[in-house]
Amino acid sequence: MSQPRIARPLLGPGVCFGASFLLCPLWVTCGHETVRAAMISSHAVSKSTFRISIVAAVVAAAYTAYEGWQSNVQAYNGTLQMVLTYECGGAQSDDNLRAALNGARIDLSKVGCSNRPFFWASYHEIIQARERKVTAREIV
After folding, report:
1. pLDDT computed for residue 71 by the predictor
2. Number of domains the chain is built from
3. Fewest CB atoms within 10 Å of the CB: 14, 16, 89, 101?
4. 49 and 95, same structural domain?
């Protein structure tokens, strides 16, 4: 009568890296004999599930931080572009501004200060830009 062989680890001793940490507790048998093999315990399953949930939480937190950073960058760029447009309008002569006047508002895209069509500014805002109340240097 043959003696049963001892089960050998699937990956070898001490080899647990990457996603293979789920396979570390598995054991396989060699041959066709009936051999005792260690099964995955509920503790190992819960440990693996906990690890996966931690990784998912870290990925979700990183994505949320990235999205927040992106929205802040977009808001900053929009504000900077608006201030630069007002500064450009403030540098224009009154004759150029009168040509772009439409009622009480001045269309800064008509004097070449904005690529966006219909960038409206009041004369008061142009005066504030001329007096340098808000400048691009303050924003940067």
Report:
1. 97
2. 2
3. 14
4. yes
Q: Work out the average pLDDT over 121-134.
A: 84
Residues 63 and 17 placed together within one structural domain of the fold? no
Rg (CA), the chain: 34
| CB neighbour burial string for 83-99, b if at least 16 within 10 angstroms, e if fewer | bbbbbbbbebeeeebee
Q: Is residue 56 classed as helix, strand or coil in its secondary structure?
A: helix
Q: Which domain holds residue 4?
A: 1-40
d(CA 29, CA 9) in angstroms, rounded, equals 9
Concatenating the DSSP letter of every residue in 82-135 gives: HHHHHHHHHHS-HHHHHHTEETTEEETTTTTS-SSS--EEEHHHHHHHHTTSS-
| Contact in structure between 119 and 129 (CB atoms under 8 Å) | no
pLDDT digit string, tens, across residues 28-65:
445 554 444 456 678 888 888 999 999 999 999 999 99
**Same-domain check for residues 2 and 67:** no
